[in-house]
UniProtKB/TrEMBL annotation:
TM region(s), chain numbering: none
GO molecular function annotations of the record: metal ion binding; metallopeptidase activity
Domain MPN span(s) in chain numbering: 30-152
Full protein name: DNA repair protein RadC
Top-level taxon: Bacteria
């Protein structure tokens, strides 16, 4: 077997494992409430020592299409721009999206910068026809839904 064929086979196996793992991690496949989304996000990012900003794109039935890390920042900040967020949305044919990030300090209270980027993303999504459903901030054992708090 040539090197090229081995590489193709490894690539195929990797894609297959991701698909199986995704279905095991989230078997019900529909996001009905912020708690569903927070549980899913925690499986990937709860123990990070730096701030990580992620996006989950959803189809018209609120089923996840993709989960993408947009930015890995520092202990208390990460750089996020609507361009990178909505690139993922466009590539996955998203009807809507949810944003997530963690606060390594453990306190999930939104900062003024969190509120500002949420407003920018909401406005950008409105322009593109892709709804921002929520922005969830994860802390130590708890989370805050910015939508439930009326911050978006």
């Amino acid at each position: 077997m040539s090197k090229n064929n081995v590489a193709k086979r490894i690539e195929f196996v990797s894609l297959r494992m991701v698909r199986e793992k995704t279905s095991l991690l989230y078997p019900q496949r529909i996001i009905r409430k912020p708690d569903d989304a927070a549980k899913l996000f925690r499986q990937f990012m709860e123990d990070c020592d730096r701030e990580v900003f992620c996006v989950m794109t959803l189809d018209t039935k609120n089923q996840p299409n993709a989960f993408q890390i947009i930015s890995v920042g520092t202990l208390n900040a990460s750089l996020v721009h609507p361009r990178e967020v909505f690139k993922v949305c466009m590539l996955t044919n998203a009807a809507s999206l949810m944003c997530f990030h963690n606060h390594p300090s453990g306190n999930p209270i939104p900062s003024p910068q969190d509120i500002e980027i949420t407003e920018r993303l909401r406005d950008s999504g409105t322009l593109l026809g892709i709804d921002l459903l929520d922005h969830i901030i994860i802390g130590d054992g708890s989370f805050i839904s910015m939508k439930e708090r009326g911050l978006m």
